[in-house]
Design brief:
The chain starts with a strand and ends with a strand. The strands form two sheets. Strands 2, 4, 5, 6, 9, 10 and 11 form a seven-stranded mixed sheet that branches. It has a four-stranded antiparallel sheet with strand order 1-3-8-7, with no helix packed on it. With about 120 residues, it is mainly β. It is globular.
């Protein structure tokens, strides 16, 4: 069973930066694709960014392009999301997901989330 745990959330002001981390661990090779999602109150969950195990094929949703950077350290089993120029609309619970299931068409493993609040 793969375990996924996010950290790094907090309360920041507009324009600030924040880095989220995701620690993942499990049996066997941890060569998973990984992703960051977020969900704001009253809104649907949305994919923010994803990255393959090789570090390639990176995706960003349009609203975060140029502000957020996804990266991973496979040696430490860590996934990161560096967020700059944060806006109030970035406020959400951020979730880390691992291993895309091509049969189910969804991510297999999820963390519990870390809250990001951008407010004056």
């Amino acid at each position: 069973q793969v375990q996924v745990m996010e950290s790094g959330g907090g309360v920041v002001r507009p324009g600030d930066s924040l880095r989220l981390s995701c620690q993942y661990s499990g049996p066997g090779k941890n060569d998973y694709s990984m992703a960051w999602f977020r969900q704001a109150p009253g809104k649907e969950r949305e994919e923010v960014s994803c990255i393959e195990w090789t570090g390639g094929n990176i995706y960003y949703r349009d609203s975060v392009k140029g502000r957020f950077t996804i990266s991973r350290d496979n040696g430490k089993n860590n996934l990161y999301l560096q967020m700059h120029s944060l806006k109030p609309e970035d406020t959400a619970m951020y979730y880390c997901a691992a291993e895309w299931d091509t049969v189910l068409g969804d991510w297999t493993y999820w963390g519990q989330g870390t809250q990001v609040t951008v407010s004056t």
